[in-house]
Amino acid sequence: MWKKKQKTNEDYYLASQWTLMGRKLKKHKLAKLSMLILLLLYLGALFADFLAPYSLDEFDALYKDSAPSKIHFVHEGEFIGPYIYKLEKNIDRTTFTVTITEDTSEYYKIRFFVHGTEYKILGLIPCDLHLFGVDEGSNGGTGAKIMLFGTDALGRDIFSRVLLGSRISLTIPFASAVISFFLGVTIGSISGYFGGAIDIVIQRIIEVIGAVPQIPLWMALSAAIPPGISTVKMYFYITIILSFINWTGMARVVRGKFLSLKNEDYVMAARLSGVSTWKIIWKHLVPGFMSYLIVSITLGIPGSIVGETSMSYLGLGIKSPATSWGVLLQEASSVTDVASNPHKLIPIIFVTITVLAFNFLGDGIRDAADPYK
Amino acid sequence: MFHIPIPIDAIPQTLSAVCRKEVKMNTENILEVKDLHVDIHMTEGLLTAVRGVNFEMKKGETLGLVGESGCGKSLTCKAILGINDKKCKSSGQILFDSEGLGKVDLLSLDQRGQEIRSIRGKEISMIFQEPMVAFSPMYTIGNQINEATRLHITKDKKKSKEISMEVMRKVGIANVEKRYNQYPHEFSGGMLQRALIAMALVCNPKMLIADEPTTALDVTIQAQILELMKELQKDFNMAILFITHDLGVVAKMCDRVAVMYLGKIVESADASEIYANPQHPYTRGLIGSVHKIGSKKEERLFSIEGTVPLAMNLPKACGFYDRCDVRIEGLCDRAEPELTEIAPGHKIACFNCPHEACRAQRAKVEAALNGKEADHV
Amino acid sequence: MNKDNIMEVKGLHKRFTSKGVTVRAVTDVSFNVKPGETIGIVGESGCGKTTLGRCIVRAYNASEGEVFYRTKSGEELDFLKVDKKKMKEIRKEIQMIFQDPYSSLDPRMTVLDIIKEPLKANFPKMPKDEMDQRAKAMAEKVGLNPMYLMRYPHAFSGGQRQRIGIARALVIEPQIIVCDEAVSALDVSIQAQVINLLRDLQKELKLTYLFISHDLSVVEHISDKVGVMYLGRMVEFGPAESMFEKPLHPYTEALLSAVPVADPTVQMERIPLKGEIPNPANPPSGCYFHERCHYCIDKCKTDSPVLEEMPGGRLCACHRAKELNLRGFTYDEGAKTQQAAT
What we know:
The complex is a heterotrimer of chains A (373), B (377) and C (342).
Chain A: H1 2-14, H2 17-27, H3 29-46, H4 48-51, E1 72-75, E2 78-91, E3 98-121, E4 125-137, H5 158-194, H6 196-210, H7 214-224, H8 231-261, H9 265-273, H10 277-285, H11 290-313, H12 325-330, H13 335-340, H14 346-369
Antiparallel strand pairs in A: 1-2, 2-3, 3-4
Helix pairs in contact in A: 2-14, 3-5, 3-14, 5-6, 5-8, 5-11, 6-8, 9-10, 11-14
Chain B: H1 13-19, E1 29-42, E2 45-58, E3 62-66, H2 73-81, E4 88-97, E5 103-105, H3 114-119, E6 124-127, H4 131-134, H5 141-152, H6 157-170, H7 176-180, H8 189-201, E7 207-211, H9 219-236, E8 239-244, H10 247-253, E9 256-261, E10 264-270, H11 271-276, H12 281-289, E11 340-343, E12 346-348, H13 356-376
Parallel strand pairs in B: 3-8, 3-9, 6-7, 7-8
Antiparallel strand pairs in B: 1-2, 1-4, 4-5, 9-10, 10-12, 11-12
Chain C: E1 7-18, E2 21-33, E3 38-42, H1 49-56, E4 64-70, E5 76-78, H2 84-91, E6 94-97, H3 111-122, H4 128-141, H5 158-170, E7 176-180, H6 188-205, E8 208-213, H7 216-222, E9 225-230, E10 233-239, H8 240-245, H9 250-258, H10 298-302, E11 308-310, E12 314-316
Parallel strand pairs in C: 3-8, 3-9, 6-7, 7-8
Antiparallel strand pairs in C: 1-2, 1-4, 4-5, 9-10, 10-12, 11-12
């Protein structure tokens, strides 16, 4: 037991700041759960083509606005594994109401690793393997669709759209956050370390830029970009442009941290030892609040995600046929529509979970952040 | 559940004394600490910060608690008032001769209860090391001193303000009318410490715990504050538990001294005795490490080698073993010495001390250890 | 420059201006340092001793004054006026040890890296092995176990961290070290260890120390000469022994009488100082100390005294220095007396 204690003591002594932080983070259950969820979501986005049974442009007149498929396991007393029925539309001659019922004559087994619509891995390699889907029916029929989250007004499978849409919703805000991060840290550190006139000028610039209103700017940029460019590209451009405006918050915080840290004794010791200014900034000062910056990013990304969602919802961001979670929500914007098809609100759950996951992760990192306290 | 606060004056003293177990105390003493342990549960293990502290304080005397960082002196004092962190578990007995509750064991009282709150600030007060952070910057000094008055003495606004201002005058704050309405940032360090003392003394406590009150002050201000405390002690007839690591301050202020090391008291005696005749190797080392001003320059200061070990997973041995220059191998690393009285008022915990009582203890312990060995063999 | 001296401080001033208020942190300080000496600088808060130390190492840029310094190669120059390139060269020879062992080491670097950093910055062409070797040798010299050098600072106690700071300062072989309250944050027994270490190193490596502290006992023990500062001015300077035995400036006398002695049988009559230390942004007229001085005369209220030479190689800034007979303090283990005043 004595030896074991020695080992843990030694571990503690040899552990760098990051190791200590990692250990503390592992104890934070919510953060671990959030990391897992985010990992799953991003893997889902990466392998969306494979995971989704259908692609974005598979319209279907029969399956418009359908509720999620009911998955059955027992057919006529026998257990045959998960299967679905094909849907039938019946129009009542007298009332002209449309009812959709299941055609129980045939069942379609849900198979794994089926061949379906073609897609290109990384845009290059063609492949048509999907994780799951339905093939032929028990009697050889075709045309059944497995709709885990139902379909939208044009018959497209919402589950597939959520997965494929997550590609945009999860990645573009990330890019924007990273750009803002680098701009913010660089400019903020210059402002904070050198102080004096440089600081004053930069702070005034920050204030001017920060005063620019986002939504009108976005609208103007939307209108200014020439038509014909795909919406995804347009969204990308706008995001990049906006990240050149969003760095101000980060810069302010970085400057504040610099102002407080640059008077620490070890910084002065480094100066007296003859270490150059840039080395002092990057080796001594920036790591001092790196944990704070990480927290800032993890808490800033959900902001961007919600931002993208809001923009697309307002019709200013991504537009159909390109898909993002915001587009999906926009299609569910009519109250009557949602009242009769509540399954269209499922993308909200995804947005919420993602935002919460980033928040809890950020919380966890923040709590673990100063391992020396 | 609703908690209806019952002011302690409403309960007749006999009733409260009947409800609580009556403790026996020497009538001369105002405080008796018996076998106090404070343990802190940490993720790395159990930190036994205070490992069995015993001492008494007579009414009106000044006891100095001397020790370096990590010896547990702050935790001991906070345990007396019950203001330790939730993570700290205290056990043992802290007997206090109070006015409101009679002779009572402070550790038996609920840490959040009404009873101990009637003692805190009223009968036992505490002043801290950094006066700059002891006051809230949001309220005036007068307001904060008044808080104690209004809590314990009278709720009448005018009367309590008068009492507060009177005590501010007593601690030597000039221009009290103006100062009463000023904020902490407008006071200098020495003034703040006086204000802190005022806040502690406003209810005329029987005992004052001073946790390194002058460490953060300049030497001339320190001298002023120490003199003030001595004067006030006489006026208020209160006992002072003075915690410090500065041996000069102890010599100036204290009647008796207790030296703490690694959670235990290793030596306690009258001040003059302990400086003239230190018996424990740690005490000797401490006194030798300090250069007395005005004396001839020595080549080297006596220094105790090594550093204070962490109070976690301590083996059963004398805590000072690793650093002691007179340690006895085979004895001091296998057993812990207990505090024994070697002269009236002079107690020491050391196996190597030549006095009668210590040698008797040593013989007993050696016999017990040999007996154990014989059993094993 | 006098050939006996390694450093001569002449008329050093440092002013801080913020929002229209000028604080005179250091005013007209002058003294000389011989090689191998330890100069103690004492004073209370606001006296400017820390600022003085930082001006001497050029961590702050002094507003006025000169610091003449003789480099290892024998060159004599004004350290405050050298250009950037020359300063980088000479920086190696004047180093500093800081007060707070917890904030003076970068918590994100291993101890070995911390000690190696000055080598990396000043001798970039030195091979890595040699750097490692030198760092390890220096660590051993200050009493650190070389096995533990891969640990991070949080693994070490206050005293050990201070040793790391000392190793870092010494690894580039400086001549002068400014110790800015280097032992004030340490426990008494650790203080003794570090003080002994500093003295041993001084003898071995022939160092010169500028020891800044508020603790008079420590300063008396370690210093050859002592300078007393009050509100930015140096009021007295001279050999430690004679100063403590018989001070020349009233402030020194008051300071000595206020220091508590670790012996309860000593009865010291304290010279009470009225009032508080004045605000450095708004100092009194004439002699800065006149409002609190017992020996104040009219002249003191209007004329500011300058440091004058007194017998015994001492300096004192007091109009009445020659006529006053002030009380010092000697401690004799046996007799326990204090020198009386007239």
